[in-house]
Amino acid sequence: MSTVGALSLCAALAMPAYAVETESKPAEHHHDNSISGFIDHQELQKSLKKIEATSKGVVQVDVVGQSHKGLDIYTARVGTGDKVLLVQSEIHGNEKTGTVAILSLLKSLSNNSKQAKKIREEVTIVFMPMMNPDASEGDKRRNSLTWSEVVEDYPQLNDVAPSWNYLDRGISQSYDYGANPGFDVNRDFNPDLNYVPEEQDFPGASNKPGWFITPEAQTSRDVYKSLQDEFGNVDVFVDLHHQGLYYVGGTADPVTLSLSAQFVPSPSSPEGSKYAEYADKYNYDFSRQLNLAAYNELQSYGNSKFTNISLYSQGLDLPGTALGSYALNGSGTVLFEVRGQTQMMGQKEKGQLVKSVERGLSGIIEGVADGSVEQLDPEAYEDIPLTSYSPSF
């Protein structure tokens, strides 16, 4: 996408920073950083209902599942085009900027501008703005499900060790999981979307598929499968996350946002041969093109923090993530990792980080809508600087 095109899209989609009510925020959290400017579950519900009503039918909001504690999990759908994008946020509850960005984009994509109408004709976008509400309300990474509750649902697991992504001891990211155990939901996915837990697959490992034992992962999967049934394929899947404090490789510039297209080795490669059954669906080049669309959009802003973009760690083999599982099922995939989680930074730099997510997503949406993403050279993805764990001087 040209700089002019990128800037015109952002102008078309740009909205004022989303203002939220704060009266329902808890007075204290398990860390010292304020998160009062982010969105809690009650505010999300109110905001989605308001956006749906204001859009006069353009935005469709649905309850698609419940968290372990019974909080509603929502989708918000906009557009009627044949190309479908699924965008998911807050699978980790201390990674909150994506939710704010989604609400802002919903407003702009549902307005009456010529650009917004054109986009809606070409694409259907399904947002899951708070995929793990229990974790969001607790401002923590993991959900609130216990292993004993899993065994109640799956008695065949009675004699196996808990899955490796279950934490029931110690302090992690300022949260006491010994007192409040839970699962990392983003390790509970499986490329076999019809998988049923089997005892021989536990406790598993980070380079092995997950199990769909959490209600949150089950809900994401069910949304994905329903879109497959409707469209034949989910063209694009974007997962919105946060990371630690890193640097753009070869510089002393702190990373604003890391991107990635790679979560499992290619099924056509020797190291990816265990995924051979998915070889006909996997499209790494398209994933790279989507990441380039986001990268080019952010780079179009010239000399600013929006250009501090890097590639997340490459060479990964994570089939238990949503990104890995959905990539093997035929989706072009994009990871967003903005700087800092709430226990590290609270809402510091929230406005800039939210805007980075908005602008990166707008680059992808526009590129898919007008087909320009398919004209990008996927090899250019390899020129994006890698994330560094320390500054280079």
Automatic annotation (TrEMBL):
One of its GO terms (biological process) is proteolysis. SUPFAM superfamilies: Zn-dependent exopeptidases (SSF53187). Its cofactor is Zn(2+). Pfam families: Peptidase_M14. Residues 37-368 form the Peptidase M14 domain. InterPro entries: Peptidase_M14. The active site is at residue 337. GO terms for molecular function: metallocarboxypeptidase activity; zinc ion binding. GO terms for cellular component: extracellular space. Keywords: Hydrolase, Metalloprotease, Protease, Signal, Zinc. PROSITE patterns: PEPTIDASE_M14. It comes from the Bacteria. Residues 1-19 form the signal peptide. Belongs to the peptidase M14 family. This is Peptidase M14.
